[in-house]
Amino acid sequence: MLEIIGKPWWWLLLFFIPIVNIVFGIWATNLLSKSFGKTEGFTVGLLLFSIIFIPILGLGSAQYVGPAGAKQD
């Protein structure tokens, strides 16, 4: 997942720190949805209803646009 959102490997260590893991988990989920061209509303869906939104992201028409939705000129 860290490769998809374009973050370094040491972010994995932050997920083991209490309280910090919640913040970085939400941030990583937001970056994941932006990497597939989705909005913050989709991020909320991923956080609350992940059992539904992850298959939508994986099996739907979403296209990977680059780490965190890289701007294409």
pLDDT averaged residue by residue: 89
Shape: globular
Count of folded domains: 1
Instruction: Write the element-wise H/E pattern from the N-terminal end onward.
Output: HHHHH
Structural class: mainly alpha
The gist of it:
This protein has 73 residues and is mainly alpha-helical. The chain has helices spanning 2-5, 11-14, 20-35, 40-48, 50-59. The chain has one domain (2-58).
Q: What structural keywords apply?
A:
59% helix; 73 residues
What does this structure look like?
By secondary structure, this protein is mainly α. The chain is 59% helix and 0% strand. The radius of gyration is 12 Å and the shape is globular. The relative contact order is 0.18.
Task: Describe the protein's topology.
Layout (H helix, E strand, L loop, with lengths): L1 H4 L5 H4 L5 H16 L4 H9 L1 H10 L14
